[in-house]
């Protein structure tokens, strides 16, 4: 640890040493038509290897630049790249005004992340960071964020029903991923079985962009084990004079006879900005490629708004409120359906840009995420003798503080975050065969609590041909729960979860460092190494006999678990060339200590409580596990009319030591055997995607054809009784058509050949020996209106 | 040229690392190592008068003279205990403590026990017929067939110890059979029958199997046959007359008590190999 901080401060000091300039280049970047400030434009001075991005007011600044002639390059995805030649004199403060002209571009996440590796500030990170922007999301029929993301390289998802697909990044999932909204808000899903993962509480139509950080490196946003997803829904706006805009959309899907609608009104002036709106989605069951109906219908809607105030030129306060509702959401792969979900999200943000001395900015965020979730098995086959209804209340409240200190060519971040997660709820069972008789009440959570306080720092900077980044955080984690008992009115207490102590405390260190070396303007090579530790989550600590795994077992929490640590290295090779396009190859190796997984508990110790399960598993630390994999992406130059995107990704996971039970032909457990290097369960197979597109009318009409090839997954976990899955190939066609500034249309057909297939990570349908297949052929269209 | 070779070298390093990271994936499954331990397997048989039961056939006569047939037998045994000749004992509980046997389900007729058994000579075997009270918890079985053995909550809850279902010819009948449900489970103490129950009785009982001496050696699986001699439920020490006690005894503690006391010699054992 000491060494790490020494390194950070050494680099910091070195960086200051290079800064002997005597001039300043600053400016404001605006849209040529609307004259609105352009945020997140990249401003690069190639001659001295410096880069920055514009802030919300379009402002940027380079200090301590030596006098001379420079070429400044200004880039933004929505605008044509602009180059400006300037002359800087000794002591001069150059104040530039830059107007950018809109350019219709075919955006793909590859382009976004890898376009101009040399100059894109974000992609200078020495590990994989991908950003998906709103316009890309619009070119998809995905009903949810998880559904959309799993089309990306090394991102997959766990499907249990028609929606609520849970993202898996390089085989890391659930609380191995840090999923946040608007840079820091966390949401604790209500369902222990993750019907409603965090991403399901945000409507995809409300997303402005999604930032994906792969690996245990992004520590500014919270404890990070395998990756971070940052869902951005609000951006600050500044209008010169008062104005109001209306956005509306209507979408339809043929397969599910489903529709979605959006209406939002936003506007403001230079002192405040606001937005109000909502989304409504209603989808029926879908037909898979075999023509079988999959019970997957759902209704979801949300409404809310935000209001921001520019207290002064550089100080902004934003309040956001959102209520989202889920009704009758079917999950054929779970033993219950979501009957009702009422979620309320609130946040208050302050952002201050100081630029006083080295103090660059301060941000503060307060948030509250309140989820009320009700599930039942009422729509399950009548052969079930027990009606069960679960009501769960989950709440995550917290805050995040961060300050940025600017050095010449680098930024030092310091901050702290805090989250308080509480969960309470019970399952009430009544017997159909004994009507009027007492019910059984099982506490699923009894005032369970997890509190995490973290302090973090990060330094990023550039020296000559090197970009470096180093970060660290320490987390203090506390967990507790009320006594867990199961009661029946006539008998009183019939089960009691016995544990010596249900309180757990952890102190976790996470740290990493990485560097990118730019061989020239086309080639760069990056290396990152880091260690990310996460505390066990609420399910792993406190779950009481619910089938929360992919297998058919009731799971039992374990408050005595040790934290899980991911030690990872990433090596990335980047190539960017205006004539040949962009290419990135990454390989990673991850060594996980105290891997948390379920291990079987004999029925003599604990019998399951859920119908249809095979037994009980308890969460345990199972020693060391390893993941390794690669991803390859290529994207042809944006300027090409005929464009190509290619991606391929693979992850391979093993656990050093595990055991499995020997089961005889009568289904009896008769012994056990040790397994060395068993496969980790739920790791997606190798897959590759090829996309072809053509830009008609200067990009106003862009049809795109994509083929996705997924290999069979035969490397499956023996100890977890995982089933192999076959490979498949699917194709889809879609287009976007920009009619005018008021109307644009996207549409297409998914699964053109109506292929019957399922993803390896799809859960099985409960009660049937039938996989949960993906939807068959589906025509869709989205209309976007803007006034 | 030099530059190009530099890039090729770097690309080579990347590819090498990728391949290196994916190697070393050999699976090495070791057989279980349980040196010096033996195994035991129980095989359940259901007999009347020493012969395998012919179900659904009105061909048997009990000690009280009732002519009867058996349709099915379902029961639990628990806490199977092996007594070694050195005085130590081993209760089977590492995986399952309660075992379910069903005459209709052949996969329940053979129980390959998970527990390792220390080699040596064992004098005898005993088990609890049914489920001991502290283990007999309502809702503990969520899946059939065990789930369907539930004992009604108002009669004490938990699970039946046994369902011995059949039919008999009531006195005076020549061909019209009457069903009997010879069911054992928790008994009730009534303040006033049938509404007011003031307490419950544990009717499970321990069965010691006669002539059950056997020897297990390391690495050996000992096969032991456990036979239920159904006719003995109806005699010794009590003559159980179906005409007297009727077809339903779940709320009749006197009848269940008789059955319980008759149960001591219902089971016999044969060491197979």
How would you summarize this macromolecular structure in one to three sentences?
The complex is a heterodimer of chains A (787) and B (273). Chain A has 787 residues and is mainly beta.
Give the end-to-end Cα distance of chain A, rounded to a whole number of Å. Answer: 54 Å
Shape of chain B: globular
Rounded radius of gyration of chain A (Å) = 26 Å
Oligomeric state of the chains? heterodimer
Helical amount among residues of chain B, as a percent range?
10-25%
CATH top-level class of the largest domain in chain A = Mainly Beta
Layout: helices, strands, pairs:
The complex is a heterodimer of chains A (787) and B (273).
Chain A: H1 2-18, E1 23-31, E2 42-45, E3 50-53, E4 59-65, E5 68-76, E6 79-88, E7 93-100, H2 109-114, E8 129-133, H3 134-138, H4 145-149, E9 155-158, E10 166-169, E11 172-173, E12 177-181, E13 209-214, E14 227-232, E15 243-253, E16 258-268, E17 272-283, E18 286-287, E19 293-294, E20 298-312, E21 315-329, E22 337-356, E23 359-376, E24 386-407, E25 410-431, E26 440-463, E27 466-480, E28 485-488, E29 492-496, E30 504-518, E31 523-534, H5 538-542, E32 544-546, E33 553-556, E34 564-577, E35 581-593, E36 596-601, E37 615-621, E38 625-635, E39 642-663, E40 669-679, E41 687-694, E42 701-710, E43 728-740, E44 743-750, E45 778-786
Parallel strand pairs in A: 1-7, 12-14, 33-37
Antiparallel strand pairs in A: 1-4, 2-3, 2-5, 5-6, 8-13, 9-10, 10-11, 13-14, 15-16, 15-45, 16-17, 17-20, 18-19, 20-21, 21-22, 22-23, 23-24, 24-25, 25-26, 26-27, 26-28, 27-30, 28-29, 30-31, 31-34, 32-33, 34-35, 35-38, 36-37, 38-39, 39-40, 39-41, 41-42, 42-43, 43-44, 44-45
Chain B: H1 2-22, E1 28-29, E2 39-48, E3 51-52, E4 60-61, E5 67-84, E6 89-91, E7 98-102, E8 110-112, E9 120-129, E10 162-169, E11 177-184, E12 187-192, E13 196-201, E14 205-209, E15 214-216, E16 221-229, H2 242-245, H3 253-262, E17 267-271
Parallel strand pairs in B: 2-16
Antiparallel strand pairs in B: 2-3, 2-8, 4-5, 5-6, 5-7, 5-9, 5-10, 9-14, 9-15, 10-11, 12-13, 16-17
């Amino acid at each position: 640890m000491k060494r790490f901080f020494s390194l950070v401060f050494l680099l910091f000091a070195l960086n200051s040493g290079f800064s002997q300039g005597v001039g300043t280049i600053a400016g404001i970047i605006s849209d040529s038509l609307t004259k609105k400030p352009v945020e997140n434009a990249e401003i690069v001075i190639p001659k001295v290897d410096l880069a920055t991005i514009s802030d919300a007011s379009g402002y940027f600044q380079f200090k301590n630049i030596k006098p001379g002639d420079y070429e400044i390059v200004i880039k933004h995805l929505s605008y044509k790249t602009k180059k400006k030649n300037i002359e800087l004199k000794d002591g001069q403060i150059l104040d530039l005004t830059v107007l950018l002209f809109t350019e219709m571009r075919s955006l793909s996440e590859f382009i976004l992340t890898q376009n101009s590796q040399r100059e894109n500030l974000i992609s200078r990170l020495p590990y994989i960071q991908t950003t998906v922007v709103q316009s890309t999301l619009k070119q998809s029929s995905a009903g949810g964020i998880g559904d959309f993301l799993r089309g990306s390289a090394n991102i997959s998802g766990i499907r249990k029903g028609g929606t609520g697909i849970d993202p898996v990044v390089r085989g890391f999932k659930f609380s191995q991923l840090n999923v946040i909204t608007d840079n820091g808000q966390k949401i604790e899903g209500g369902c222990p079985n993750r019907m409603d993962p965090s991403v399901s509480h945000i409507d995809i139509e409300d997303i402005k962009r999604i930032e994906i950080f792969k690996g245990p490196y992004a520590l500014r946003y919270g404890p990070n084990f395998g990756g971070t997803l940052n869902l951005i829904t609000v951006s600050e706006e500044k209008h010169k004079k008062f104005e109001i805009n209306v956005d509306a959309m209507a979408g339809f899907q043929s397969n599910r006879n489903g529709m979605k609608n959006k209406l939002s009104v936003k506007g403001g002036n230079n002192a405040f900005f606001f937005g109000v709106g909502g989304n409504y989605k209603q989808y029926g069951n879908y037909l898979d490629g075999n023509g079988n109906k999959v019970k997957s219908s759902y209704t979801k809607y949300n409404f809310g708004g935000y209001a921001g105030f520019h207290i002064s030129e550089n100080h902004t306060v934003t309040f956001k409120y959102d209520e989202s509702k889920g009704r009758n959401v079917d999950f054929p792969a779970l033993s219950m359906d979501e009957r009702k979900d009422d979620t309320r999200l609130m946040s208050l943000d302050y952002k201050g840009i100081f630029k006083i001395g080295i103090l660059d900015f301060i941000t503060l965020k307060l948030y509250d995420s309140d989820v009320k979730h009700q599930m039942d098995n009422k729509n399950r086959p009548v052969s079930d003798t027990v009606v069960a209804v679960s009501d769960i209340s989950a709440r995550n409240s917290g805050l995040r503080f961060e300050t940025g200190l600017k050095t010449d060519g680098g930024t030092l971040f310091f901050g702290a975050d805090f989250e308080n997660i509480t969960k309470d709820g019970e399952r009430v069972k009544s017997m159909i065969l004994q009507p009027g008789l007492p019910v059984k009440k099982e506490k699923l959570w009894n005032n369970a609590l997890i509190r995490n306080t973290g302090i973090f720092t990060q330094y990023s900077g550039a020296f000559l041909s090197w970009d470096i980044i180093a970060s660290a955080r320490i987390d203090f984690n506390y967990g507790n729960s009320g006594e867990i008992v199961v009661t029946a009115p006539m008998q009183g207490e019939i089960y009691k979860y016995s544990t010596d102590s249900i309180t757990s405390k952890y102190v976790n260190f996470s740290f990493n460092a990485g560097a990118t070396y730019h061989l020239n303007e086309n080639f760069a090579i990056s290396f990152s190494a880091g260690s990310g530790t996460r505390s066990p989550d609420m399910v792993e600590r406190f779950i009481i006999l619910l089938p929360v795994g992919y297998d058919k077992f009731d799971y039992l929490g374990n408050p005595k678990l040790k934290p899980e640590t991911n030690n990872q290295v990433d090596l990335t090779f980047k190539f960017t060339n205006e004539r040949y396009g962009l290419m990135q190859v990454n390989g990673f190796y991850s060594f996980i200590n105290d891997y948390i997984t379920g291990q079987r508990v004999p029925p003599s110790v604990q019998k399951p409580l859920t119908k249809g399960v095979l037994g009980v598993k308890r969460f345990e630390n199972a020693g060391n596990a390893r993941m390794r994999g690669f991803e390859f992406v290529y994207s042809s130059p944006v300027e090409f009319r005929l464009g190509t995107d290619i991606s391929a990704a693979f992850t391979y996971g093993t656990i050093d030591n595990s055991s499995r039970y020997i089961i005889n032909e009568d289904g009896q457990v008769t012994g056990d055997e040790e397994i060395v290097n068993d496969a980790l369960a739920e790791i997606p197979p190798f897959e590759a995607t090829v996309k072809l597109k053509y830009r008609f009318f200067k990009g106003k009409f862009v049809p795109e054809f994509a083929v996705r090839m997924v290999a069979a997954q035969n490397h499956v976990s023996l100890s977890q009784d995982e089933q192999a899955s076959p490979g498949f190939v699917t194709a889809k066609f879609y287009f976007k058509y920009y009619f005018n500034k008021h109307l644009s249309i996207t549409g297409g057909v998914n699964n053109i050949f109506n292929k019957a297939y399922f993803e390896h990570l799809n859960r099985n349908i409960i009660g049937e020996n039938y996989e949960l297949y993906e939807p068959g052929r589906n025509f869709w269209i989205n209309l976007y209106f803007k006034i | 040229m030099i530059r190009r070779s530099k890039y090729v070298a770097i690309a080579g390093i990347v590819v090498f690392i990728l391949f290196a990271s994916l190697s070393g994936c050999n699976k090495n499954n070791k057989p279980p190592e349980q040196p010096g331990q033996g195994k035991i397997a129980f095989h359940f048989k259901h007999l009347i008068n020493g012969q395998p039961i012919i179900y659904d056939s009105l061909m048997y006569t009990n000690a009280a003279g009732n002519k009867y047939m058996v349709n099915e037998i379902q029961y639990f045994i628990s806490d199977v205990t092996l007594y070694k000749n050195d005085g130590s004992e081993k209760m089977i509980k590492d995986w399952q403590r309660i075992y379910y046997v069903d005459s209709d389900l052949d996969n329940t007729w053979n129980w390959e026990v998970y527990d390792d058994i220390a080699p040596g000579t064992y004098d005898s075997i005993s088990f609890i017929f049914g489920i001991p009270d502290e283990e007999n918890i309502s809702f503990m079985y969520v899946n059939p067939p065990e789930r369907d053995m539930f004992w009604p909550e108002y009669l004490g809850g938990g699970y039946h110890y046994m369902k011995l279902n059949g039919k008999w010819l009531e006195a005076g009948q020549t061909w019209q059979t009457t069903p009997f449900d010879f069911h054992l489970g928790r008994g009730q103490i009534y303040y006033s029958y049938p509404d007011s129950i003031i307490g419950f009785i544990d009717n499970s009982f321990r069965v010691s199997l006669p002539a059950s001496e056997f020897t297990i050696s390391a690495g050996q699986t000992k096969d032991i046959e456990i036979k239920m001699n159904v006719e003995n439920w109806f005699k010794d020490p009590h003559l159980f007359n179906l005409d007297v006690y009727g077809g339903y005894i779940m709320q009749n503690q006197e009848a269940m008590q008789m059955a319980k006391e008759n149960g001591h010699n219902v089971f016999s054992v044969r060491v197979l190999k």
